[in-house]
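tool_call: predict_structure(chain=1)
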Amino acid sequence: MSSTLTEATDPYCLREGESAALLHGHPWHRFVVLGDSVAEGMCEPVDGYPDVQWADRIAAELSAVRPGLAYLNLGRRGLRAQQVRAGQLDRALAFSPDLALVACGGNDAFRTAFDPDAVDTELTAIVGALRDAGADVITVGMFDVSHSPAVPAALRPGLNTRMRLLSSRTGRLADRLGALHVHLTDHPAGSDPSMYSSDGRHGSARSDAIAAAETIRRLGAHLATRLPHHPNP
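tool_result:
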C-alpha cells in the first residue's frame, strides 16, 4: 500500500457526501455501543487518517444527519463477552437506545481455550435483550488480526482459525436475531500491515476509518429496505 495513501484517497473509505446519502432520513435518536477495546477505541495513529475511532465516527455521521443524537459508549478494553454482558447490558438498556453496536468476543478468541458456544450464549443474551427492547443492533465480524506483523508467526494459524470462527458464528447469530452484521474478516484490506497497531491486538486509524465506512454502508443498505424513497449514494 502506498505510503502516500490518505483517507481522502483510500478506495475503501467514505467518499465525500456518501454518508449523508446513505443515512438520509435515518430514524435513530439514541445510539449505544457495548463491548471491549474495539468498542472503546484503541486505534493507533496513521499519517493521513484522523485519529478518531470507529464508533465515534459512526456517531458523528449519524449526528450530521440527525442533530441532537444521544450517544453513549460503554466499551472498555480487556473485557471478555461475559463481562460485557454482566457490566454493560443493563446500563445500555437503561439508556433506551434505538440503535446499538455490539463488538466483543475478540478477547475470548485470543485465548487458545476459546469456547465459541459460551461466547454465542453471551452475545445472544446481549443482542436478544437489545432487540427485545426495540433497538436495531449492529454486530461485527472483526478484521482478522492474525495478519498483523506483530503477531508471532507460530501463533497466526490458530488465531486465524479462532477469529474466523467467532466471525462466522456472530454472523449466523445476527441473522437469527434480526441484527445487522458487518463482516470485516474477509475485507480486501485485511492483510495490509497498515491496518494493525504495533501491539498485535488492535487496529489502526486506517482500520477504524474502513470499519466505520463499512458500518455506515450496512446501515444504508438496511435503510434502503425500510424507506421507499431512500436515495442512492
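agent: Strands lie at 30-35, 70-73, 99-103, 136-141, 180-183. Proceeding to next step.
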